[in-house]
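Good morning,

Attaching, inline, the backbone tokens for the sequence recovery test we're adding to the shared suite. The designed sequence is right after.
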């Protein structure tokens, strides 16, 4: 039996089966609510349940006494009709629905120790619309799925560029990637993710990236160059050592092409030769911007950095929850 999920303060509602998450049902109904990991870790999908009961993480919670509670919609399954209040909700644009597509390896090169840049192209005539900052899922043999962010801007819709961290023993990044030569075929589904950044928004946009979290940031900043964004943009980029800050020519290009762009590389384990900033990216951003009430933030990369940024910026620096966007690069389940 399906339950009905109503979205508070709107005329939106959708059916949701007992074994379906509120997020899955909303997406099936063509509605877009925030999400990233879909595994209960990143808390991007968190919103309030104003009425009804949900099963989540092995327990059932109810707003029956009139007390709303917070739930993660990627895991919450209805146990009654619900009224929910997601952080944002909108109707999905038609082009935003994920679709499966084949692609072939066009180029592959190691850009840093343990990081491979992979450029795949779709068949001639095939283009896939996505927004800067979104991700794809590789559909691998044995039913395995692996998430990667697009590093190319949406205008380059005839293929995808990825920055792949090689994990020893990784089903994709270790076992499969080493055998992928130009011309090799891969299937994928895209686009996924909820990042919505508007070049016309006058507020400063603060970008934080660690490791291969640089990939979605590259997509956003290449988009900014193409669309001539004028909003202030600052990138805090973290790594352990200088070689982790791969493709240094990209920030240099953005500094030349984007009037409002500033680049802040930050190393957590610098050696004596490093003359730049040391520490964590989120600490550097918070030191520069103690009042974040009028900025937007996008953070991508290590889950610990994403969680610490969200906690510190929203609780201590006045960043509205709805202006924090993130992709936590979690290992696949
Ligand atoms: C929305 C999203 C976007 C992502 N985008 C990117 C991206 O652009 N580039 C990128 O490199 N990764 C990205 N990731 C992370 C990537 O999907 C995972 O790291 C994935 O598990 C790698 O697959 P694999 O087959 O290489 O390794 P697996 O077979 O999944 O894992 C092999 C071993 O490595 C460990 N491991 C795997 N990934 C991680 C990790 N991230 N942190 C710590 N240990 C790990 C596993 O626990 C396991 O022991 C993204 C993840 C999400 C959710
Ligand atoms: S916790 Fe639900 S999308 Fe990440």
């Amino acid at each position: 039996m399906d339950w009905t999920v109503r979205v508070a303060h709107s005329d939106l509602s959708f059916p949701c089966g007992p074994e379906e998450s509120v997020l899955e049902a909303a997406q099936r109904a063509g509605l877009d609510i925030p999400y990233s990991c879909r595994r209960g870790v990143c808390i991007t999908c968190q919103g309030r349940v104003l009425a009804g009961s949900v099963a989540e993480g092995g327990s059932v919670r109810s707003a029956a006494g009139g007390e709303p509670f917070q739930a993660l919609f990627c895991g919450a399954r209805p146990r009654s009709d619900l009224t929910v209040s997601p952080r944002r909700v909108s109707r999905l644009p038609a082009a935003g629905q994920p679709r499966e597509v084949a692609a072939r390896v066009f180029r592959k090169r190691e850009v840093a120790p343990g990081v491979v840049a992979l450029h795949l192209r779709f068949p001639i005539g095939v283009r896939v619309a996505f927004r800067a900052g979104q991700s794809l899922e590789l559909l691998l043999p044995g039913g395995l799925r692996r998430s990667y962010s697009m590093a190319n801007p949406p205008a380059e819709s005839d293929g995808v560029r990825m920055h792949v961290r090689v994990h020893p023993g990784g089903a994709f990044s270790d076992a499969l990637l080493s055998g992928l030569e130009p011309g090799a075929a891969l299937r994928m589904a895209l686009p996924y993710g909820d990042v919505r950044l508007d070049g016309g928004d006058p507020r400063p946009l603060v970008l934080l990236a660690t490791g291969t979290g640089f990939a979605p940031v590259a997509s956003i900043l290449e988009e900014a160059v193409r669309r001539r964004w004028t909003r202030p943009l600052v990138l805090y980029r973290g790594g352990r050592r200088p070689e982790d800050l791969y493709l240094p020519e990209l920030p240099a290009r953005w500094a030349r092409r984007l009037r409002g762009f500033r680049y802040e590389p930050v190393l957590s384990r610098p050696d004596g030769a490093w003359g730049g900033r040391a520490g964590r990216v989120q600490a550097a951003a918070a030191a520069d911007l103690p009042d974040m009430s009028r900025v937007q933030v996008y953070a991508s990369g290590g889950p610990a950095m994403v969680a610490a940024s969200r906690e510190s910026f929203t609780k201590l620096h006045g960043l509205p929850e709805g202006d924090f966007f993130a992709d936590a690069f979690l290992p696949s389940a």
